[in-house]
UniProtKB/TrEMBL annotation:
This is ABC transporter ATP-binding protein. Residues 442-461 are annotated as: Disordered. Residues 25-279 form the ABC transporter domain. It holds the Pfam family ABC_tran. Belongs to the ABC transporter superfamily. GO terms for molecular function: ATP binding. PANTHER family: D,D-DIPEPTIDE TRANSPORT ATP-BINDING PROTEIN DDPF-RELATED, TRANSPORT ATP-BINDING PROTEIN. Keywords: ATP-binding, Nucleotide-binding, Transport. GO terms for biological process: transmembrane transport. The keyword Amino-acid biosynthesis does not apply. The keyword 4Fe-4S does not apply.
Length: 461
């Protein structure tokens, strides 16, 4: 981006970028795994134990667009953002900036690209040096990248930038600690703009700020993006944050992108059950519009050993029952959750017993504890399971109480089989410029799938 573009920028980025189809930044099969081991012995013992934070991401950022990357905490969004800037070296796959491979370049080799791609961080204060004045903070990157003819010129540019981000030029001699959180984030944005980048990756830029200030910073980013023709990656866990700002959205779950769509289409008609779950947590102006609330249970599983098949299947409200299941989809979901917890050794019999004895006094019989395990481990409203499934689940609970977790596991055996656990879903086009990776949207599976009860995650998702 030239200095001229900053001053004479068109009102709308799309004017500059034309129909925004030029790809500025692109990843293919991008992986970032963190090795868990410290030394040789660790590596030997923990062979294959790595945190698969980003695990095969194909993504493109188009000129002049704001691409939001959303997902729960721990899905790998920040790691993806940092790998885009080569702050993390990719484990596998490519990152290309305007067609040139930048993944894995050395610091020296990255230098020309650092002025093209900048990052705005979540915690503005932590990312600003408290001992530097705002002037120093904003002019330092200009010096590194040879921007400006003299100190005086750089100071002048810094003042212009402060004004552009909504701060008074006279603040140039102040220190970060003298500002509010919102103002600090404005300084962080001014610093990112100082080298006149083409791309900004903003990692949760408002999540550390008061709600009242969040909209102001988002508006600032939106205006800057459009005035300067920036391409923006906006990382957020809160979907309400991105609605007014993003052009497109990529939904991330456990290291993978599960759905992408233009922002309006995504909000109006999400296809992936994970997207539906995230969206149903977003407050709406008209509460009556919320007809399909989906409660997302539990937390994101460990990226060290992600679930097989579709990674979301262990929590997916729309998980597809195998052909042998004779009950309802909802009953299958409950039984499958029970089986997954037993398999994963996640049922804490002692805790259940302690809780019963604490609440009810005296000692709880094994039979009562087993019953309580069934009650508490099968989530949701009690709904009838097929008789054979109910009996196997009760038997497994009794075995758990007897301390024989392996037998409990064997008893459940192949009670709950699902294509979602067996096969990784392929990307399926779900409309213009959008796709989702879910067996529910795959016509091959869709025809035979019983719609979900009351969650809106039926045949369309
Ligand atoms: N340097 C690291 N070493 C080991 N594991 C890491 C490292 N950085 C991130 N992780 C792990 O990678 C996974 C993804 O983390 P990441 O921070 O990218 O997720 P996120 O979606 O941005 O979540 P959050 O919003 O909480 O930061 C997590 O399990 C995290 O613990």
């Amino acid at each position: 981006m030239s200095r001229e573009t900053m001053t004479d920028a068109p009102a709308d980025a799309s004017e500059k970028a034309g129909v925004a189809t030029d790809v500025v930044l692109e990843t293919e099969g991008l992986k970032k795994h963190f090795d868990q081991s410290d030394g040789f012995l660790d590596r030997l013992l923990n062979a294959g134990q790595s945190v698969k934070a980003v695990d095969g991401v194909d993504l493109e950022l188009r000129a002049g667009e704001t691409l939001a990357v959303v997902g729960e905490s721990g899905c790998g969004k920040s790691t993806l953002g940092r790998t885009l800037l080569n702050l993390h070296e990719p484990t596998e796959g490519t990152v290309r900036f305007r067609g040139e491979e930048i993944g894995g370049l050395s610091d020296r080799e990255m230098r020309p690209y650092r002025s093209e791609i900048q990052m705005v961080f979540q915690d503005p204060l932590a990312s600003l040096n408290p001992r530097q004045t705002v002037g120093d903070i904003v002019t330092a990157p200009m010096e590194v990248h040879g921007i400006g003819d003299s100190d005086a010129d750089r100071t002048e540019r810094a003042k212009e930038l402060l004004e552009r981000v909504g701060l008074k030029p006279s603040y140039i001699d102040r220190y970060p600690g003298q500002f509010s959180g919102g103002q600090q984030q404005r300084v962080g944005i001014a610093r990112a703009l100082a080298v006149e980048p083409d791309v900004i990756v903003a990692d949760e830029p408002v999540s550390a700020l008061d709600v009242s200030v969040q909209a102001q910073i988002l508006n600032l980013l939106k205006n800057l993006q459009s005035e300067l023709g920036l391409s923006l990656v906006l990382i957020a866990h809160d979907l309400s944050v991105i609605r007014q700002v993003a052009s497109r959205v990529a939904v991330m779950y456990l290291g993978k992108i599960v759905e992408t769509a233009p922002v309006r289409e995504l909000f109006e008609e999400p296809k992936h059950p994970y997207t539906k779950s995230l969206l149903s947590a977003v407050p709406r102006i008209d509460p009556s519009a919320r007809t399909d609330r989906v409660v997302l249970r539990g937390t994101v599983p460990s990226p060290i050993d992600p679930p097989s098949g579709c990674r979301f299947h262990t929590r997916c409200p729309a998980v597809i029952p195998g052909d042998d299941w004779s009950g309802s989809q909802a009953a299958f979901r409950r039984a499958f959750t029970f089986q997954t917890r037993v398999e994963g050794g996640d049922v804490d019999v002692d805790a259940v017993r302690r809780q019963m004895e604490g609440a009810e006094g005296g000692s709880a019989s094994d039979e009562a504890v087993a019953e309580r395990i069934v009650e508490t481990t099968l989530p949701g409203e009690p709904r009838s399971l097929p008789d054979d499934a109910a009996e196997r689940i009760r038997e497994a609970a009794r075995l758990l109480v007897d301390g024989d977790a392996d037998a409990a596991d064997r008893t459940l055996g192949e009670l709950c089989l699902s294509p979602c656990a067996d096969d990784e879903p392929a990307r399926v086009d779900t409309g213009d410029d959008r796709w989702a990776a879910c067996h529910r949207v795959d016509p091959e599976h869709d025809a035979s799938v019983e719609p979900m009860e009351g969650t809106g995650a039926g045949s369309s998702g």
